[in-house]
Amino acid sequence: MKCSTVQTLLNCYHDAELDSEKRAEVEHHLAACPMCREALAQLEGVAGTWVAFKTPPMPEGFAERVMRQARKRATPRSVPGWSEWPFLRWWWEQSFAMRAAAAATVAAGLAVGSILGFSNPSANASSHVNPPGAVGESVAALTGAPHGSLEQNYLALAFPSEMSKHSP
Amino acid sequence: MSSDAELMQAVQQGDLSAFEQIVLRHQALVWSTACRFLNDPAEAEDVSQEAFLRVLDAAPRYRPTAQFKTYLLEIVARLCLDRLRKKRPLYTDNLPERPDDGKTPDHALIEQERHQQVRWAMEELPPQQRMALSLRYDNDLNYEEIADVLQISLKAVERSLARGRATLAVRLGESRKDNPNAEGVLRP
After folding, report:
1. What is the pLDDT of residues A1-46, one digit of tens each?
2. d(Cα B121, Cα B44) in Å, to the nearest integer?
3. Those residues with Cβ within 8 angstroms of residue A168's Cβ, 6 or more apart along the chain or in another chain
4. C-alpha–C-alpha distance, residues B128 and A4, integer Å
5. Rounded-to-integer distance, Cα A99 and Cα B34, Å
6. pLDDT in tens, B16-67
7. Is the pLDDT of residue B185 over 70?
8. Which residue of chain B is at minimal alpha-carbon distance from A65?
């Protein structure tokens, strides 16, 4: 085996990664080649320097600190103090999907209610002068009250235009 | 004594005492690897703690297809390499001054200087070479295991180790000046 070949195998030889046949060939060459032995000694010197360079000792209490963090991660999320209220406690106990569904349902209900309220034909800008249909119907129901009664006087003050429609 | 695979099975069931056994069994390995690589005990402890917590978080998905040690070191290596990428580069201005050659230092100073030289030499290695050498020398992993941890090919492992050693040999002055072929001999 040539020096150039052995030198490409020296790292694997040093790490015991060669098969038995190649290992034997390298050892046979090393026995006769001081230059390659010097190169191997260099590798072993680097290994010795690395191993001799000590890392600081393990910090005390490391395992306890890890376990403290581990227990935090394993504990269910704590409920905030203000959610002692039953509804809020229920809210916090639901999964994200349930909360999203509940919020969407409420929002849809509000949206539908708003649309129905705005689309009611008796709801117009002059409602403070002409009361909404529901109120007008109530006024009509009350116009049967006797003339000069408290009801009649109230209605005359509150809804003059309606009263003029229903006055005898 | 339960094997790592058995302990991880228990951890999957929520057994924290099994996880504690995992930590106690492997803390020295994780610490020395992180410390060797980062050369900063505070960062090394941070990375070591995070490595174990990642094992805990990933426990439901853990499958014992490889040795647990290799799996754990893969996490450590990834965290170390990420940490190094985010870390401020080591500027030479920040390094302590080397003693004047004209002085006659005592034994303690010689040792201190040597220690510093070794540390500088290690820190100047590219991250992959540094980690490959640490896995080989500190953790006694073979080439295949190193390849698994670093997610590189066997050839890349061989190259990383060879180049890392050659660089250290030159930086540490291991090669003798009177041997004209010293650097050529170590060229991979």
Report:
1. 899 999 999 999 999 999 999 999 999 999 999 999 999 999 999 9
2. 19
3. A147
4. 26
5. 43
6. 999 999 999 999 999 999 998 988 899 999 999 999 999 999 998 888 877 8
7. no
8. B49
Q: Is residue A126 less than 8 Å (CB to CB) from chain B?
A: no
A3-14 and A34-52 are packed helices; what angle lies between their axes, rounded to 10 degrees? 30
Residue to mutate among B115, B160, B185, with most A CBs inside 10 A, is: B185
Predicted complex: ipTM over 0.90: no
Distance CA B33, CA B72 (A): 11
| pLDDT tens-place string over residues A131-151 | 555 555 555 555 566 777 777
d(CA A11, CA B165): 9
Report chain A residues whose CB lies below 8 A from the CB of B14: 74
Q: Write the secondary structure of chain A as one string of H (helix), E (strand) and C (coil).
A: CCHHHHHHHHHHHHCCCCCHHHHHHHHHHHHHCHHHHHHHHHHHHHHHHHHHCCCCCCCCCHHHHHHHHHHHHHCCCCCCHHHHCHHHHHHHHCCHHHHHHHHHHHHHHHHHHHHHHHHCCCCCCCCCCCCCHHHHHHHHHHCCCCCCCHHHHHHHHHCHHHHHHHCC
Residue labelled with tokens 């008796």:
A122
- Gap between the Cα atoms of A48 and A89, Å rounded: 63
One-letter amino acid for residue A41 of the chain: A
Q: Do A74 and B122 touch (CB under 8 A)?
A: no
Using 50, 70 and 90 to split pLDDT, how confident is the model at A93? low
Measured between alpha carbons, how far is B92 from A66 in angstroms, rounded to an integer? Answer: 35
DSSP codes, B111-178: HHHHHHHHHHHHHHS-HHHHHHHHHHHTT---HHHHHHHHT--HHHHHHHHHHHHHHHHHHTT-S-TT
For tokens 């790490």, name the residue: A15
